[in-house]
User: What shape does this take?
Amino acid sequence: MAAVSLTAVPARADGPRPAVLVLPGGGYGHQADHEAEPVAEWLASLGIHAYVLRYRVAPHRHPAPLEDAKMAMLQIRSESSGPAVDPTRVGVLGFSAGGHLAATLSTAVATGNAALDVQAAVPDLTVLCYPVVSCTEDVHQGSVDNLLGASPSDDLLREVSADLHVTAATPPAFVWHTADDAAVPVHHSLAYTGSLIRAGVPAELHVFPHGRHGLGLATGDPGPDQWTSLCAAWLTRRGWTQSSPSVM
Assistant: This one.
């Protein structure tokens, strides 16, 4: 099994820049390459430093992947030898099971490690791409089995269901999904976005009528191929691209 790694893809931009942690999907059993470095290169083209995390997967169980993600966030914010990062603008972007990891990171789900369960490990914004969110409704069983093992308790299933832990302090999110995703039902994105809106957290959701699961950048897939431009516009409105003022 490959070791945990954090790979930087710097933006070509002067001065401290925003950064985004990229979490590829793979059902907590592997990691999809097309949801990793190509996505980081796209973020870098927007003037955002990107970091691809190869986190632990099965046979490792929760909280191992979440520990890896929290450690990565802390490292990015404190990086002194890599790209110049604005520590007040560090986000996360995740696909599928990587979206679940991004959502649990964003909702400050605990690992039991006091050194990691700190505010500095919570991102400033979140991008979720056809994410797994709930482990109690419309479950993606493969992700649950790989992350939690056989017969997890109801309490543990609720603990890692990010939609149940959204608060007013949860970061703003951009979320997209396809309505006919046969692997991870669109309910997951609807549930997380609904929780954000009820908590008064800014959220933008796009549901495209058609598209298979695991599209990544979705180049050449009519409809979902708009997500990158829509997300870039959202990042621009939040002041995360090179030429835009910050959103108040």
